[in-house]
Amino acid sequence: MFQNRIKTKRDYTMVTIWDVAADAGVSKSTVSLVLNSSPLVKEETRRRVMKSIKALNYVPNYSARSLIRRSNNSIGIIHMSRGARNTDHRYEWSYSSDSFTHDVEEGVFQAIAQQDLDLSVMKDRYDLSHDIHNIPGIIRSRRVDGAIFIGGFDDEDVVEVIRGLDIPAVLVVSSWAADGVDTVFHSSYEGSRLAFKKLIETGHKRICLLNCPKSYFRVWPERVRGVRDAAAECGYALDERLLLSAEKNTPQSGYMAFKELLNSGLMPDAVLTANNEMAMGLQRCLYELNIRIPEDISVICYEDSSFCGNASPALSAVNVEKELIGKTAFQFLLNRINDPQHPIQTFTPAPHLIMRESLLDRRQLPVP
Question: How many CA atoms lie within 13 A of 239 on its CB side?
């Protein structure tokens, strides 16, 4: 019965090492030992596994198997951060949600699941606010065969340190080509341009950009450039007073920046937020003041996430393909581990808009 089910499955999906193990009645590790011609496997077991491999037309992923033969059989995911993070407060609004890193990681794990390898993933943090040469412990102790670095940073010295590591590395950053390092980007410029243009085209006249901190995020000027280019394309008169910068990348800072704008007497009819944190701070501010979304103010959030889809009302957003970024970063790392001389790899997925309830087309409203 089980063999028939597997054979039917084979007609529609790729057979995996798990299917072979189930069909042969052995563990996945045993199948791996057979594929690697290990003398530890009994001859009877080896024949049974080989019979299942032949019956299911299983084709091993040899690029993945070459990674298995590496010394650690593990990769690292390194979170780039600035300053100590008090994990006791990670659920508070004064703390960044790390949704970008979480969703990119999900893409990495999806890619690993699609490969026929038994691979462990270790996570660590790289604090850029202190000595940048104090690299993460999992790299210092050589516990990983390669690492994916995720985070926003703008220091060439940091890239130089990463470039000099004695392990393969991939950077997941935004808007910055780092020479000599495999890099996966998201386009803050293009995503912001698309969103701002959409707000203009739907009849909004006073559009605010609630941006991340100006002091240490390279994406800050890219978002401003995207907004300005969208305004120029559409002949829209941009009010520079509506280009805001939060002090920190937290909901609390987004709340404070927008409330200060309202206290100054300026009231936008639309807001583009730089990320989920700014959107959460904005929503809290509007809720307290009984300002309605989208009746009084439309909102588009850069960086689509489960937060955007589950907010009330659900937030329109710029989808930057975070899971695809994670999948690509893993494939780049696999390529680099298997071939240290592989040409430098870069990739930037095209962002697109996801329209939900938070945007009101004001062209359809009656003129007061």
Answer: 17
- Calpha distance 323→176 (Å, rounded): 20
Could you tell me if 160 and 149 are in contact, meaning their C-beta atoms sit under 8 angstroms apart? no
Q: How many helices (H) and strands (E) does the chain have?
A: 14, 12
For the residues of 337-362, what is the DSSP string, one character each? HH-TTPPP-EE-PPPEEE--TT---G
User: Cβ-count burial of 8 within 10 angstroms (0-12 exposed, 13-18 middle, 19+ buried)?
Assistant: exposed
**Residue 2 pLDDT:** 31
Query: Over the stretch 310-363, which tens digit does the pLDDT of each residue have?
Result: 999 999 999 999 999 999 999 999 999 888 899 999 999 999 999 999 999 999
What percent of the chain shows pLDDT beyond 90? 52
CA angle 227, 228, 231 (to 5 degrees): 90
**CB 198, CB 300: distance < 8 Å:** yes
Q: How confident is the model at residue 4 (pLDDT cuts 50, 70, 90)?
A: very low
Give the integer Cα–Cα distance in Å for 359 and 368: 20
Shortest CA distance to 23 belongs to which of 46, 45, 47, 56?
56
DSSP element (H, E) containing 76: strand 74-81
